[in-house]
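Proteins fold reproducibly. Look at a concrete instance:
___
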Amino acid sequence: MKKIAIIYYSFSGNTKSVADMIKEIFEIREYEITMVRLMASNEPTSFLKQALRALFKKKAIITEDVVCDLSEFDMVALGTPVWAFNMVPAMRTYLDKCQNLMGKNVLLFATYGSGVGKDKCINEMADIVKSMGALKIMPVLMQQNEVKNYRLVMDKVKTALSNG
């Protein structure tokens, strides 16, 4: 049986919603699924402070029990909201810690509000996983008001997977 790890950070729930829909797609494909929700133990409660940390590419302290060795997975999905043109600090930390992406297909997904910086965010994530040896990189960008449209999200993810 093929395996996928879906690793994401979600503050408002939008990125979690997309992660759950991705999970549905891979359940139908009969993958064994590992879901990992990243949590930052040093995260400020103020969104402004969170955005500033993202803007300056700060890292977060994430729990030690997170799956960082990805060697057992056939595919990996990585999701983040876009904050201040960047991925969230918890995802930045995770990408520093994760190992064994060589030869893996990677689905990148990002949720965003205004759209400013969404391409910068997804391109930086793509560059990082590419430098780690990812085989195929499949990006999906989802505006927060689109997340509630189940059909649209599913179509965007399926299109990215079929193009990858």
Summary: Helices lie at 14-28, 47-55, 89-97, 118-131, 150-163. The mean pLDDT is 93. Residues 14-28 form the longest helix (15 residues). DSSP finds five helices and five strands in the chain.
